[in-house]
Amino acid sequence: MSTQPFALPIAYLNGKFVPVEEAQISPFDRGFIFGDGVYEVIPYYGGKGLRAREHLERLQRSLDMLDIANPYTLDQWQAHLSELVAKNGGGDQAVYMQVTRGVAKRDFAPPKGLTPTVFMMSNPLSQPSKALYEKGLSCVTLDDFRWGRCNVKSTALLGAVLLKHEAVQMGADDCVLFRDGFLTESSASNVVAVKNGVILCPPRDNLILPGITYDLMIELAGKRGVPLEQRKVSRKEVLSADELWLTSSTKEVIAITTLDGKPVGSAEHAGKPGPLFWKMLGFFQDYKQELRALAAAAE
Ligand SMILES: Cc1ncc(COP(=O)(O)O)c(C=O)c1O
Hints:
alpha+beta; six-stranded antiparallel sheet
């Protein structure tokens, strides 16, 4: 079966750029057998990575937490990533990169000295449509039953897959997760609430993935003087929030406009993206514009 439609034509596998349909790995790869690996998704705009360094630093932290040696330096990663994006035509792309512990006889205890497997592919990256921004997303609240190390960006994603599956089966776009009565995140995005003009962000602990977009949002809010609190956010606060947003590298920031079938927010904003959402979306667009201008100037 051709994998051609699944990604842009050129992939990267263990030091070589190859046609994506020719990228093959061993079934003994521990990534396949155990999900023993980590990944990143890095957005490129105008051929230039948005926060690529921060993604690569998070990759390093994920690898460290699994005791897998990083096969490349930061500069080597940057070079491979840029080459992959260029070979796939430049422009706006989302690069998926994965490092697994490598190929070995099936045994839970990881043998020492394995050569990590490195795979990268890319997909076109397009911004959500204006209509989607205006409509926002519908979410359902679910109990976060994932493991206790959600700060590792692991390829073992069965918890997230089952939660998203449940949300979609319930007719929603995605889920908002709670653990012990407090907000964690969504299946593949961070979640923040807005109350009385203040952005409420769950703490950057082991129960969420420390999102690069979440950090960028905090930075942009700080620069533009939008009040923000990083602290535990209760279920009650989420259910009575004026606004709820998802953030991720591919979605950037998008509003959740219905939660458990009820409109988010009140009065004229009920069930619609709120005023602070539009402001934050504008901050993101300005930031990307600067990035594109820098990329063009460097050419
Ligand atoms: C569970 C989870 N939380 C949050 C995020 C958002 O992270 P980022 O902004 O770095 O894309 C992701 C992205 O894949 C994710 O899988």
